């Protein structure tokens, strides 16, 4: 199974990864390691893909799958097999994986400096604007000791948004204007750098150790699903847990 490991200095014992779309059983537009059960893929294929991931990573407890709604709520991850509505989860339990699914939105993984608490967050532009990263950071004791990884998301050359999106971000944080580039020939359209927006938000609440942000799900069709590119498509998963 082809997975991506974060290039970061998280504490020993913290494990994390993001899946690619490679090495699964789904077919058609979902080819092949689709982990989303809400995108009209064959449920049996999704079930097999999820089990293959669990087996590949050697997870000993059921991971916390989420029903994501572009909000800012985070829940404590449980191993009871119940899918819960939230856009992030956290855990202090050994072996309990936190998972978010994406296909252009930004997955963000958090680990505290002593390796005792981890979290995973799904940050689309709405969640990012409304403060889901700040919500996640607030659950940790010392933001300055946090390690954060920005997983694969739509890149800054492909994420076109309207002026109203830019204006909302700038109204919250003036610095956000630096993350938007006007689209030539398209008035009131901008290219948004979701990685830069996330870094700005994290820096504002005292987080220094931020890595990742080098992928583009839209342009790398071989490895990544992209909702903006394909419309109907699968989902990757980003996971973090304490070994």
Sum up the overall morphology in one term. Answer: globular
Largest sheet composition: 6 strands, mixed
Could you name the CATH topology? CNF1/YfiH-like putative cysteine hydrolases
Mean pLDDT: 98
How are the strands of the biggest sheet laid out side by side? Answer: 4-6-9-8-10-14
- Classified in CATH, the superfamily is CNF1/YfiH-like putative cysteine hydrolases
Helix amount:
10-25%
What is the architecture at the second tier of CATH?
4-Layer Sandwich
Number of domains: 1
Low-confidence stretches: none
Assigned CATH class: Alpha Beta
Number of helices: 6
User: Alpha-carbon distance between the termini?
Assistant: 20 Å
* SSE pattern: EEHEEEEEEEHHEEHEEHEHE
Rounded radius of gyration (Å)? 17 Å
Instruction: Please provide the count of β strands.
Output: 15
Percent in strands: 15-25%
**Structural class given helices, strands, pairing?**
alpha+beta
Q: Could you explain how this protein is built, in words?
A:
By secondary structure, the protein is an alpha+beta fold. It has a single domain, classed as CNF1/YfiH-like putative cysteine hydrolases, CATH 3.60.140. It has helices spanning 43-57, 125-130, 132-137, 163-172, 194-204, 227-230, and strands at 3-4, 14-19, 66-67, 75-76, 84-85, 88-91, 98-102, 106-111, 118-123, 147-150, 160-162, 180-182, 189-192, 209-212, 236-242. The strands form 4 sheets. Strands 4-6-9-8-10-14 form a 6-stranded mixed β-sheet. A hairpin with a 6-residue loop joins strand 8 and strand 9. The chain is globular and about 50 Å long.
